[in-house]
Amino acid sequence: xxxxxxxxxxxxxxxxxxxxxxxxxxxxxxxxxxxxxxxxxxxxxxxxxxxxxxxxxxxxxxxxxxxxxxxxxxxxxxxxxxxxxxxxxxxxxxxxxxxxxxxxxxxxxxxxxxxxxxxxxxxxxxxxxxxxxxxxxxxxxxxxxxxxxxxxxxxxxxxxxxxxxxxxxxxxxxxxxxxxxxxxxxxxxxxxxxxxxxxxxxxxxxxxxxx
Length: 211
Known about the structure:
By secondary structure, this protein is α+β, with helices and mostly antiparallel strands. The protein has 2 domains: 3-56, Alpha-Beta Plaits (2-Layer Sandwich); 60-209, Aminopeptidase. Helices cover 31% and strands 27% of the residues. The chain contains 7 helices and 11 strands. The protein has helices at residues 30-38, 71-78, 90-99, 112-123, 163-177, 190-193, 202-209, and strands at 3-4, 21-25, 42-43, 52-54, 58-62, 83-86, 127-134, 137-146, 150-158, 182-186, 198-201. The chain has a 7-stranded mixed β-sheet, with helices on both faces. Strand 7 and strand 8 (137-146) form a beta hairpin. The relative contact order is 0.19.
């Protein structure tokens, strides 16, 4: 297992463990986070653990052209029940992602340290958010890291039915309009699979990220 020093370096993802751990340790400085995402790596760890850096052998992604919107979801969109904004309340979005209770999960990987780190990335223009509003109240949203040709999704939340789907769909449509190559969803999730996301080999993902 590779342990990071203060140097801004990650080993090749081909040296990751079978489950996809690339390295352990280091810090969440903006420079290291940007380097990680540019190399197909992301941090994911519990509060009691050291920082763990991942690049899974199978990567869940959505190609914007493959977005699936159900008939019922199209009806909800057409009702204009929700208002969508971009980058108007980043810290509120990431804080909600941390605090929302998720079925089957006792806690969250979004530590206060991570909130501070991604807020710094947001101020630098890398980390971005999508907000979903209903009656002027934020009811859903998502955030991630924007690499210019790929958006690396990190987390989303929903306080009412379909709010996170609205954020995901709005983001995907925006990425398609701006000719992004894909939306990175990291690991398999049935909810995202229902929206068109699928797994590809890490080698294929890395080629897209680095070109």
